[in-house]
Amino acid sequence: MNILAASGIIAMTILVYRLSLYIHRKAESPFTLPILSSTVILIIFLAVFDIPYEQYMIGGEWINQLLGPAVVALAYPLYIHRKVMVKLAVPLFTGTLAGAFIGVVSGVSMAKWTGFGTEILYAISAKSVTTPVAVVITESLGGITSLAAVMVMIAGIGGAVMHKYVFKVFGITSHLGRGMGMGAASHAIGTAEVMKDSQLEGSISTVAMVASAIIVSLITPLIVSWFV
Amino acid sequence: MVKSIKIVLQITILYILYQAGEWLSETFQLALPGSVIGMMLLILLLFTQVIRIEWIGDGAGFMVKYLPFFFIPSTLGIMQYYGIFQGRGFMLVIIVLVSTVLVMAVSGLIGHLSGGREGQP
Asked: Where are the membrane-spanning stretches (chain A) (predicted)?
């Protein structure tokens, strides 16, 4: 029974994803990004049929299990573009460091000024890095981890939706600039997004994402201590 | 058919690396998740030619091509937190979005301005 339910859920998720790809092809806009529209369609579907998240995860867990190897797979484009990566190491590192710093400081300070409590400040501090890292950082500070995971999602999908406007407004046209901006601000969801347009940008984004995860986990406890 | 078997086998290799990463992360109490450690392992193994690019190329290419799909179940987790989009919680959403734009602009501009010819399209 469970296997049947799981297969049904997996098939449905694939179907919704394909539908989202189709919609995005027909009406290309940041608001039809497959990751956004798939999520919205599935949430509506589950709400209409009154299916709780735990029940969806009977099948969803199988897809989730593949997220691990999918992140491992990012090594492949990275290796293909290894020569460029080595050449760009210095700007990659400095840019990501600056972004990581701005990300933690701006998130925590704005939350503080608008009157949120310490637990919320902790949860928002690591929102620019990939979920598992953000959860570990938030946990070690004593914040609410599930809230941290939601913040990471918003930063990821928000960045994927907004990146074309941001790059246009700030005149960021190079592969290096775009890849770094995406990886530093929107972690793996952003990386997945630019990877579709350019493997080089996606690889740069991967490096920025990993560097950012390491840097943020090192600097966050210090920065947060300035505000609490 | 042969190609899809090849892809499944290659994804199995990636999965083993992911599990190895998980194990390392847990054993040494590392701040990085198993998947990211697995990726670094694979890079290392590719550079040292322990793993040849042909052994994982098709499978990894497939995973990377459909990467956003694998995020769907975890992003759906957001549905458990409808409350956050109401009332004061909505401020947090705005803050995260503003902060995300700032990071994207700063890292992006530094990359754009310092990349020289290499980073140009």
From this structure: 6-24, 31-50, 62-80, 92-113, 133-158, 204-227
